[in-house]
Amino acid sequence: MSRERKEISGQNDCRSNEKKVRQAFGENAVILHKKTIVEKRWFGLRNVSEIEVIAALSLEPTKQAEQKKERVIDQSVDVTKPVAPSSFDHHLPEVIIQMKSLLERQGVKERLVNVVIEEALKQYYRQSERQSLDELLKTSLSPFFNDPLNVGRLKESSKVAVFLGPTGVGKTTTIAKVAAMYKLKQNKTIGLLRLDTYRIAAVEQLMTYSKILNVPIEVAYSADDYKQALEKLSHVDIIFVDTAGRNYLVSDHVTALEAIVNQTNEHTEYLLTLSLTTKETDLDQLLEQFRDFPIHQLVFTKLDETNTYGSLLNVTNELNKPIAFIGNGQDVPEDLTMFDLSTIIKFMQKGR
Ligand SMILES: Nc1nc2c(ncn2[C@@H]2O[C@H](COP(=O)(O)OP(=O)(O)OP(=O)(O)O)[C@@H](O)[C@H]2O)c(=O)[nH]1
Ligand SMILES: [Mg+2]
How does pLDDT run across 285-315, given as a tens digit for each residue? Predict the structure, then answer.
Protein backbone atom coordinates (compact mmCIF):
# COMPACT_ATOMS: atom_id res chain seq x y z
CA MET A 1 0.00 0.00 0.00
CA SER A 2 1.44 3.38 -0.94
CA ARG A 3 1.15 6.30 1.41
CA GLU A 4 1.28 9.98 0.85
CA ARG A 5 1.41 12.82 3.33
CA LYS A 6 0.74 16.45 2.66
CA GLU A 7 0.56 19.40 4.99
CA ILE A 8 -2.39 21.68 4.52
CA SER A 9 -2.59 24.89 6.45
CA GLY A 10 -4.16 28.30 6.50
CA GLN A 11 -7.34 29.96 7.60
CA ASN A 12 -10.32 27.75 7.01
CA ASP A 13 -13.46 26.25 8.36
CA CYS A 14 -14.74 22.67 8.38
CA ARG A 15 -16.13 22.92 4.90
CA SER A 16 -12.95 24.34 3.52
CA ASN A 17 -10.99 21.53 5.22
CA GLU A 18 -12.87 19.07 3.07
CA LYS A 19 -12.29 21.25 0.04
CA LYS A 20 -8.58 21.38 0.76
CA VAL A 21 -8.37 17.63 1.23
CA ARG A 22 -10.07 17.15 -2.11
CA GLN A 23 -7.79 19.67 -3.77
CA ALA A 24 -4.79 17.82 -2.41
CA PHE A 25 -5.97 14.29 -3.05
CA GLY A 26 -8.58 14.58 -5.73
CA GLU A 27 -12.33 14.44 -5.84
CA ASN A 28 -12.50 10.85 -4.60
CA ALA A 29 -10.86 11.65 -1.29
CA VAL A 30 -12.98 10.83 1.71
CA ILE A 31 -12.40 12.20 5.20
CA LEU A 32 -12.54 9.17 7.47
CA HIS A 33 -11.82 10.80 10.74
CA LYS A 34 -10.83 14.11 12.19
CA LYS A 35 -9.68 15.22 15.58
CA THR A 36 -8.45 18.32 17.33
CA ILE A 37 -4.92 17.43 18.39
CA VAL A 38 -3.40 20.69 19.60
CA GLU A 39 -4.74 23.73 21.26
CA LYS A 40 -2.41 26.70 21.16
CA ARG A 41 -2.71 30.14 22.61
CA TRP A 42 -1.37 33.02 20.64
CA PHE A 43 0.07 35.28 23.28
CA GLY A 44 -3.05 34.57 25.34
CA LEU A 45 -5.20 36.32 22.81
CA ARG A 46 -6.91 33.49 21.04
CA ASN A 47 -7.06 29.73 20.83
CA VAL A 48 -5.90 27.93 17.76
CA SER A 49 -6.85 24.32 17.25
CA GLU A 50 -4.98 21.98 14.96
CA ILE A 51 -7.05 19.34 13.27
CA GLU A 52 -5.68 15.98 12.24
CA VAL A 53 -7.60 14.59 9.31
CA ILE A 54 -7.34 11.02 8.15
CA ALA A 55 -8.46 10.85 4.54
CA ALA A 56 -8.74 8.00 2.13
CA LEU A 57 -8.65 7.95 -1.65
CA SER A 58 -11.63 5.90 -2.59
CA LEU A 59 -12.16 4.79 -6.17
CA GLU A 60 -13.92 1.67 -5.02
CA PRO A 61 -14.75 2.51 -1.43
CA THR A 62 -12.72 0.80 1.30
CA LYS A 63 -10.82 -1.80 -0.74
CA GLN A 64 -8.70 0.56 -2.74
CA ALA A 65 -8.55 3.23 -0.12
CA GLU A 66 -5.18 4.87 0.34
CA GLN A 67 -4.70 6.35 3.76
CA LYS A 68 -3.46 9.85 3.98
CA LYS A 69 -2.96 11.93 7.06
CA GLU A 70 -3.40 15.62 6.89
CA ARG A 71 -2.83 18.34 9.38
CA VAL A 72 -5.03 21.28 8.84
CA ILE A 73 -4.81 24.42 10.89
CA ASP A 74 -8.37 25.31 11.70
CA GLN A 75 -8.99 28.43 13.72
CA SER A 76 -12.74 28.22 13.71
CA VAL A 77 -13.50 24.96 15.49
CA ASP A 78 -14.77 24.98 19.05
CA VAL A 79 -12.44 22.47 20.74
CA THR A 80 -14.80 21.87 23.62
CA LYS A 81 -17.47 20.31 21.43
CA PRO A 82 -17.38 16.58 20.73
CA VAL A 83 -16.55 15.55 17.21
CA ALA A 84 -19.77 14.73 15.40
CA PRO A 85 -20.16 11.08 14.46
CA SER A 86 -18.73 10.59 11.01
CA SER A 87 -21.09 9.78 8.20
CA PHE A 88 -18.14 8.07 6.54
CA ASP A 89 -18.07 5.14 8.97
CA HIS A 90 -18.87 2.74 6.17
CA HIS A 91 -15.55 3.63 4.56
CA LEU A 92 -13.63 2.45 7.60
CA PRO A 93 -11.88 -0.92 7.43
CA GLU A 94 -14.14 -3.76 8.53
CA VAL A 95 -12.09 -4.55 11.63
CA ILE A 96 -12.31 -0.92 12.77
CA ILE A 97 -16.09 -0.93 12.29
CA GLN A 98 -16.29 -4.10 14.39
CA MET A 99 -14.18 -2.49 17.08
CA LYS A 100 -16.29 0.66 17.14
CA SER A 101 -19.49 -1.29 17.44
CA LEU A 102 -18.04 -3.49 20.21
CA LEU A 103 -16.90 -0.49 22.25
CA GLU A 104 -20.29 1.17 21.84
CA ARG A 105 -22.11 -1.97 22.93
CA GLN A 106 -19.79 -2.20 25.93
CA GLY A 107 -20.91 1.24 27.10
CA VAL A 108 -17.69 3.10 26.34
CA LYS A 109 -18.53 6.77 26.03
CA GLU A 110 -18.88 8.12 22.51
CA ARG A 111 -16.10 10.62 22.88
CA LEU A 112 -13.74 7.97 24.18
CA VAL A 113 -14.77 5.56 21.42
CA ASN A 114 -13.70 8.22 18.91
CA VAL A 115 -10.31 8.61 20.58
CA VAL A 116 -9.73 4.85 20.75
CA ILE A 117 -10.81 4.37 17.14
CA GLU A 118 -8.45 7.07 16.06
CA GLU A 119 -5.61 5.30 17.84
CA ALA A 120 -6.71 2.04 16.22
CA LEU A 121 -6.71 3.63 12.76
CA LYS A 122 -3.16 4.80 13.32
CA GLN A 123 -2.12 1.32 14.40
CA TYR A 124 -3.98 -0.23 11.50
CA TYR A 125 -2.24 1.82 8.83
CA ARG A 126 1.13 1.85 10.57
CA GLN A 127 1.47 -1.93 10.41
CA SER A 128 2.20 -3.53 7.08
CA GLU A 129 0.45 -6.73 8.20
CA ARG A 130 -3.23 -6.54 9.02
CA GLN A 131 -4.00 -6.86 12.72
CA SER A 132 -6.85 -8.84 14.16
CA LEU A 133 -9.63 -7.22 16.18
CA ASP A 134 -8.06 -8.72 19.27
CA GLU A 135 -4.63 -7.23 18.59
CA LEU A 136 -6.03 -3.86 17.63
CA LEU A 137 -8.12 -3.68 20.78
CA LYS A 138 -5.10 -4.49 22.87
CA THR A 139 -2.76 -1.95 21.30
CA SER A 140 -5.37 0.80 21.20
CA LEU A 141 -6.75 0.31 24.70
CA SER A 142 -3.53 -0.28 26.61
CA PRO A 143 -2.50 3.42 26.71
CA PHE A 144 -5.63 4.09 28.78
CA PHE A 145 -4.72 1.62 31.49
CA ASN A 146 -1.50 3.33 32.45
CA ASP A 147 0.84 2.20 35.12
CA PRO A 148 0.60 -1.58 34.76
CA LEU A 149 3.21 -1.85 37.54
CA ASN A 150 0.54 -0.89 40.02
CA VAL A 151 -1.87 -3.58 38.94
CA GLY A 152 -2.76 -5.90 41.79
CA ARG A 153 -1.13 -4.03 44.60
CA LEU A 154 -1.10 -1.05 46.82
CA LYS A 155 1.46 1.65 46.25
CA GLU A 156 4.89 0.50 47.35
CA SER A 157 5.06 3.12 50.10
CA SER A 158 1.55 2.60 51.46
CA LYS A 159 1.07 1.89 55.13
CA VAL A 160 -2.56 2.99 55.35
CA ALA A 161 -5.02 1.93 52.62
CA VAL A 162 -8.39 3.66 52.89
CA PHE A 163 -11.25 2.16 50.91
CA LEU A 164 -13.97 4.69 50.06
CA GLY A 165 -17.11 4.32 48.04
CA PRO A 166 -20.88 4.25 47.86
CA THR A 167 -23.00 1.95 49.99
CA GLY A 168 -22.91 -1.74 49.32
CA VAL A 169 -20.33 -1.75 46.53
CA GLY A 170 -18.15 -4.28 48.32
CA LYS A 171 -15.59 -2.24 50.30
CA THR A 172 -15.52 -4.50 53.37
CA THR A 173 -15.49 -7.68 51.29
CA THR A 174 -12.66 -6.39 49.10
CA ILE A 175 -10.63 -5.30 52.14
CA ALA A 176 -10.93 -8.82 53.54
CA LYS A 177 -9.73 -10.27 50.23
CA VAL A 178 -6.81 -7.87 49.86
CA ALA A 179 -5.81 -8.11 53.53
CA ALA A 180 -5.79 -11.90 53.26
CA MET A 181 -3.61 -11.69 50.16
CA TYR A 182 -1.09 -9.43 51.88
CA LYS A 183 -1.04 -11.52 55.03
CA LEU A 184 -1.03 -15.00 53.55
CA LYS A 185 0.90 -14.52 50.30
CA GLN A 186 3.23 -11.66 51.20
CA ASN A 187 3.66 -12.32 54.93
CA LYS A 188 2.82 -8.73 55.83
CA THR A 189 1.46 -7.81 59.24
CA ILE A 190 -2.03 -6.37 58.91
CA GLY A 191 -4.38 -4.23 60.97
CA LEU A 192 -8.03 -3.44 60.28
CA LEU A 193 -9.63 -0.12 61.15
CA ARG A 194 -13.32 0.55 60.89
CA LEU A 195 -14.04 4.26 60.47
CA ASP A 196 -17.66 5.20 60.90
CA THR A 197 -18.08 8.82 61.86
CA TYR A 198 -21.84 8.54 61.32
CA ARG A 199 -22.32 5.36 63.37
CA ILE A 200 -24.49 4.07 60.58
CA ALA A 201 -23.30 0.58 60.05
CA ALA A 202 -22.53 -2.49 62.04
CA VAL A 203 -18.92 -3.35 62.66
CA GLU A 204 -19.50 -7.12 63.00
CA GLN A 205 -18.64 -7.93 59.41
CA LEU A 206 -15.11 -6.56 59.74
CA MET A 207 -14.79 -8.05 63.24
CA THR A 208 -15.50 -11.46 61.76
CA TYR A 209 -12.78 -11.01 59.16
CA SER A 210 -10.34 -9.84 61.83
CA LYS A 211 -10.99 -13.07 63.76
CA ILE A 212 -10.66 -15.29 60.69
CA LEU A 213 -7.42 -13.59 59.65
CA ASN A 214 -6.27 -13.28 63.23
CA VAL A 215 -5.35 -9.61 62.88
CA PRO A 216 -6.02 -6.64 65.22
CA ILE A 217 -8.97 -4.36 64.67
CA GLU A 218 -9.78 -0.83 65.86
CA VAL A 219 -13.02 1.10 65.53
CA ALA A 220 -13.18 4.88 65.19
CA TYR A 221 -16.27 7.07 65.43
CA SER A 222 -14.62 10.48 65.20
CA ALA A 223 -11.60 12.22 63.70
CA ASP A 224 -9.83 11.99 67.09
CA ASP A 225 -10.66 8.30 67.44
CA TYR A 226 -9.29 7.76 63.98
CA LYS A 227 -5.98 9.42 64.80
CA GLN A 228 -5.62 7.33 67.95
CA ALA A 229 -6.58 4.12 66.17
CA LEU A 230 -3.93 4.75 63.52
CA GLU A 231 -1.38 5.17 66.30
CA LYS A 232 -2.49 1.97 68.04
CA LEU A 233 -2.02 0.04 64.84
CA SER A 234 1.22 1.75 63.86
CA HIS A 235 3.22 -1.45 64.58
CA VAL A 236 1.70 -3.32 61.59
CA ASP A 237 2.94 -3.15 58.00
CA ILE A 238 -0.41 -2.19 56.45
CA ILE A 239 -3.57 -0.76 58.03
CA PHE A 240 -6.72 -1.32 55.98
CA VAL A 241 -9.31 1.34 56.70
CA ASP A 242 -12.90 0.32 56.04
CA THR A 243 -15.12 3.39 55.74
CA ALA A 244 -18.88 3.30 56.10
CA GLY A 245 -20.62 3.42 52.73
CA ARG A 246 -22.20 6.79 52.01
CA ASN A 247 -24.38 8.23 49.33
CA TYR A 248 -21.61 10.23 47.76
CA LEU A 249 -23.98 11.81 45.27
CA VAL A 250 -24.59 14.13 48.21
CA SER A 251 -21.60 16.46 48.17
CA ASP A 252 -21.71 17.04 51.97
CA HIS A 253 -20.80 13.39 52.42
CA VAL A 254 -17.61 13.88 50.45
CA THR A 255 -16.80 17.05 52.38
CA ALA A 256 -17.26 15.09 55.62
CA LEU A 257 -14.33 12.92 54.63
CA GLU A 258 -12.07 15.77 55.67
CA ALA A 259 -11.81 14.04 59.03
CA ILE A 260 -9.71 11.37 57.42
CA VAL A 261 -7.96 13.55 54.87
CA ASN A 262 -6.47 15.49 57.77
CA GLN A 263 -4.58 12.33 58.71
CA THR A 264 -3.11 11.88 55.24
CA ASN A 265 0.62 11.56 54.80
CA GLU A 266 2.85 10.09 52.10
CA HIS A 267 2.11 6.58 53.40
CA THR A 268 -1.66 6.91 52.99
CA GLU A 269 -3.49 5.87 49.88
CA TYR A 270 -7.14 6.27 48.99
CA LEU A 271 -8.84 3.62 46.89
CA LEU A 272 -12.15 4.61 45.35
CA THR A 273 -14.26 1.47 45.23
CA LEU A 274 -16.93 1.26 42.55
CA SER A 275 -19.26 -1.45 41.39
CA LEU A 276 -19.34 -2.35 37.71
CA THR A 277 -23.09 -2.71 38.04
CA THR A 278 -23.60 1.00 38.78
CA LYS A 279 -25.29 3.03 36.05
CA GLU A 280 -22.88 5.11 34.00
CA THR A 281 -24.74 8.36 34.65
CA ASP A 282 -24.55 7.77 38.40
CA LEU A 283 -20.86 6.99 38.13
CA ASP A 284 -20.34 10.28 36.29
CA GLN A 285 -22.03 12.20 39.07
CA LEU A 286 -20.07 10.36 41.70
CA LEU A 287 -16.73 11.06 40.02
CA GLU A 288 -17.68 14.70 39.84
CA GLN A 289 -18.09 14.72 43.63
CA PHE A 290 -14.66 13.16 44.08
CA ARG A 291 -12.96 15.50 41.64
CA ASP A 292 -11.01 17.29 44.38
CA PHE A 293 -10.44 14.29 46.59
CA PRO A 294 -6.93 12.76 46.53
CA ILE A 295 -7.84 9.36 45.05
CA HIS A 296 -4.75 7.24 44.29
CA GLN A 297 -6.14 4.05 42.82
CA LEU A 298 -9.40 2.46 41.75
CA VAL A 299 -11.07 -0.74 42.84
CA PHE A 300 -13.88 -2.27 40.82
CA THR A 301 -16.21 -4.91 42.17
CA LYS A 302 -18.94 -7.22 40.86
CA LEU A 303 -17.18 -8.01 37.61
CA ASP A 304 -19.05 -11.31 37.82
CA GLU A 305 -22.42 -9.56 37.77
CA THR A 306 -22.11 -7.79 34.45
CA ASN A 307 -21.34 -8.37 30.80
CA THR A 308 -20.49 -4.76 30.02
CA TYR A 309 -17.10 -3.40 30.95
CA GLY A 310 -17.15 0.11 29.45
CA SER A 311 -16.98 1.69 32.92
CA LEU A 312 -13.48 0.31 33.40
CA LEU A 313 -12.34 2.44 30.49
CA ASN A 314 -14.60 5.42 31.17
CA VAL A 315 -13.64 5.83 34.82
CA THR A 316 -9.93 5.10 34.39
CA ASN A 317 -9.81 7.63 31.61
CA GLU A 318 -11.82 10.20 33.55
CA LEU A 319 -9.68 10.02 36.70
CA ASN A 320 -6.45 8.91 35.04
CA LYS A 321 -5.79 6.48 37.90
CA PRO A 322 -4.73 2.85 37.80
CA ILE A 323 -6.98 -0.05 38.75
CA ALA A 324 -5.49 -1.74 41.80
CA PHE A 325 -7.95 -4.62 42.30
CA ILE A 326 -11.09 -6.12 40.82
CA GLY A 327 -13.61 -8.12 42.82
CA ASN A 328 -15.22 -10.89 40.81
CA GLY A 329 -17.43 -12.70 43.29
CA GLN A 330 -18.57 -12.93 46.90
CA ASP A 331 -16.08 -15.47 48.14
CA VAL A 332 -13.29 -14.27 50.41
CA PRO A 333 -10.40 -14.38 49.70
CA GLU A 334 -10.43 -16.08 46.32
CA ASP A 335 -12.72 -13.79 44.30
CA LEU A 336 -10.13 -11.12 43.82
CA THR A 337 -8.50 -10.56 40.47
CA MET A 338 -5.96 -8.22 38.98
CA PHE A 339 -6.70 -6.07 36.01
CA ASP A 340 -5.72 -7.89 32.85
CA LEU A 341 -6.53 -6.20 29.54
CA SER A 342 -6.44 -9.43 27.52
CA THR A 343 -9.04 -11.04 29.78
CA ILE A 344 -11.30 -7.99 29.70
CA ILE A 345 -11.05 -7.92 25.89
CA LYS A 346 -11.98 -11.61 25.81
CA PHE A 347 -14.99 -10.96 28.06
CA MET A 348 -15.99 -8.00 25.90
CA GLN A 349 -16.03 -10.12 22.77
CA LYS A 350 -17.47 -13.36 24.01
CA GLY A 351 -19.09 -12.62 27.33
CA ARG A 352 -17.91 -14.42 30.41
N1 LIG B 1 -21.15 -10.64 43.01
C2 LIG B 1 -20.33 -9.96 43.78
N3 LIG B 1 -20.73 -9.54 44.98
C4 LIG B 1 -19.86 -8.85 45.74
C5 LIG B 1 -18.56 -8.53 45.32
N6 LIG B 1 -17.96 -7.81 46.30
C7 LIG B 1 -18.86 -7.71 47.29
N8 LIG B 1 -20.00 -8.33 46.97
C9 LIG B 1 -21.23 -8.45 47.74
O10 LIG B 1 -21.82 -7.17 47.86
C11 LIG B 1 -22.51 -7.07 49.11
C12 LIG B 1 -22.02 -5.85 49.86
O13 LIG B 1 -20.66 -6.06 50.19
P14 LIG B 1 -19.93 -5.24 51.34
O15 LIG B 1 -18.51 -5.63 51.34
O16 LIG B 1 -20.67 -5.35 52.61
O17 LIG B 1 -20.11 -3.78 50.75
P18 LIG B 1 -19.70 -2.42 51.45
O19 LIG B 1 -19.29 -1.49 50.38
O20 LIG B 1 -18.73 -2.66 52.53
O21 LIG B 1 -21.10 -1.97 52.07
P22 LIG B 1 -21.36 -0.81 53.15
O23 LIG B 1 -20.30 -0.90 54.18
O24 LIG B 1 -22.72 -1.11 53.69
O25 LIG B 1 -21.33 0.47 52.40
C26 LIG B 1 -22.25 -8.38 49.84
O27 LIG B 1 -23.34 -9.23 49.63
C28 LIG B 1 -20.99 -8.93 49.16
O29 LIG B 1 -20.91 -10.32 49.23
C30 LIG B 1 -18.15 -8.98 44.02
O31 LIG B 1 -17.04 -8.73 43.53
N32 LIG B 1 -19.07 -9.69 43.30
MG1 LIG C 1 -18.87 -2.24 54.52
Answer: 989 888 888 999 999 999 999 999 999 999 9
